[in-house]
Design brief:
The chain is α/β, with parallel strands linked by helices and 316 residues long. The protein is 29% helix and 19% strand. It has 8 helices and 15 strands. It has a 5-stranded parallel sheet. Strands 6-8-9-15 form a 4-stranded antiparallel sheet. The chain has a 4-stranded antiparallel sheet with strand order 7-10-14-13, with no helix packed on it. The longest helix is centred in the C-terminal third of the chain and has 15 residues. The protein is elongated. The protein starts with a helix and ends in a 5-residue tail after the last strand.
Length: 316
Amino acid sequence: ARTHQHFQAAVNDTDSEYREWYEWRGETEPETYFEWGHIANFNFDHLPVRRYLLDAVEKWQPLVDGFRCDMAWAVPNNFWREIHDYCNEADHDFLLLDETIPYIADFQAGLFDMHFDSTLYFSLRQVGGGEDAELVLDAIDERGEAGFPDHASFMVYAENHDETRYIVDYGKEAAKAAGAATFTLPGAPMIYAGQEIGQRGRRDDLAWDHADDDLREYFSSLADVRKHTPALSTEGDLRRVDYEVEDGWDDRVVAYGRVTDDEGVVVVLNFGEEPATVSVPDAAADHDLVSDERVGAGESTVSVDSAVILRADSLV
């Protein structure tokens, strides 16, 4: 930050030892990203900068379980590798998560353990706004098309601190469907603070006194189902399945399977405001694991408000 003592020394004295720590566009004006004027860009070619930052990593690594690395593309890959190697040697389970929009497949190669899935995030926003719900499956396919191996790990999310809350833009039912997508598509689900209680502000204090208990119970059930359903974990493969919307908006609904060698489930998401009646594979049961209720609406058809998860072991 510009208020840091090293920057103050550099900007006030061009002969300062810290002058080479930063990139400059003028004598007193540092380079910045996105015109974030308060944050001056480091010069990563200068070895004392790297030593200083590695010292910070060494200080914090024993105290936390991992680092979320913002704007990872703004730091040289070889420096991320230094950080990864140090942290991994100190703690094999230490997590390095890169926040890069769009994601970068090169970061899989010994730099980061998990990646922000911004592609799925933006697809969920598009679907909430009226685009075809199949986009969420296309987003998963894009991982391989971008060059990621099948074992790459992604953090999946529907809300963050930079965007309007999903529930504000698209309504509660769509927000429940988007939440279910993050718990049932391949990846590690992230709930942004307050998402599970219907928080409407992005960065304000959590409104516990106005919590939506129905929504909180729904997210708790999603988490419980995922925890106890191996097909929804990293072990489960994603499989496209045949389905048909018999009553409701065709493009507001998407269904897919998740399977392991031993079990399978069919997930149906409905981003529309009204319930939909959907025909699903014969393998799917009519008992929703999330609500713990029967949702059958006829032979091989189910009624879906926002999301259902159905046992379908014969998909294996």
